[in-house]
Amino acid sequence: MKEYFKYFVKMRGGGSPPPAPKTPEILLGFVGACIALYLVGWLHTLSMDIAGLPFVIAPFGASAVLVFGAFRSPLAQPRNVVGGHVLSALVGVTVYQFVSHDPTIAATLAVATAIALMHLTKTLHPPGGATAFVTAAGGAAVHSLGYWYVLLPCAAGSIVLVVIGVLVNNLPSEQKYPQFWF
Predict the structure, then answer these.
(1) Phi-psi region at 47: left, alpha or beta (left = phi > 0; alpha = psi -120 to 50)
(2) Residue-wise pLDDT tens digits, 63-79
(3) Can you give the pLDDT at residue 44?
(4) pTM for the full model?
(5) How many CB atoms lie under 10 A from the CB of residue 127?
(6) How far, in Å, are 60, 68, 103, 161 from residue 73 at the CA level?
(7) Whole-angstrom Cα distance, residue 3 to residue 7?
(8) How many CA atoms does the CB half-sphere of 114 hold within 13 Å?
(9) b/e per residue, 77-106, with b = 16+ CB within 10 A?
(10) Were 138 and a residue from 25, 47, 94, 142 both cysteine, which residue would form a disulfide, CB within 3.0 to 4.6 Å?
């Protein structure tokens, strides 16, 4: 019976929240996210005009939060950002190939599989779950690209986020990004 109560006692928490970031870090996060997401959007416009390929996906917004707002987090490191998106897109496309008749099952299996594989490959990146979801349950435009969707927008867009993250997050001498590459 005591074990039963221990389970619920854990839910109270007990740790203290992290300190608030300083104003320069907030401003750099703002500027970095603006630059990175604008570049991804610009590339989207360019690629849609030239090749008809999409470049903007919603999970990049969540990745920008990590890369520019929580850049010290293991989940925001280049390996995780690029690897998480690419692996999750591969999973999403593959699952869709097998379960295209039911988008709910496809999305469910894609996200769950992506989580497991990101754990196994040490590329856990929460927006990767959204990438798997969008890739498996997305519309005809996403599905028509098949595995090309992994390269454009997933790989290319996540690389843009990381490159801008490296350039902007290292401007202050006391900041370091990435914490690790591989």
Answers:
(1) alpha
(2) 999 999 999 999 999 99
(3) 79
(4) 0.90
(5) 26
(6) 16, 10, 32, 15
(7) 6
(8) 34
(9) bbbbbbbbbbbbbbbbbbbbeebeeeeeeb
(10) 142
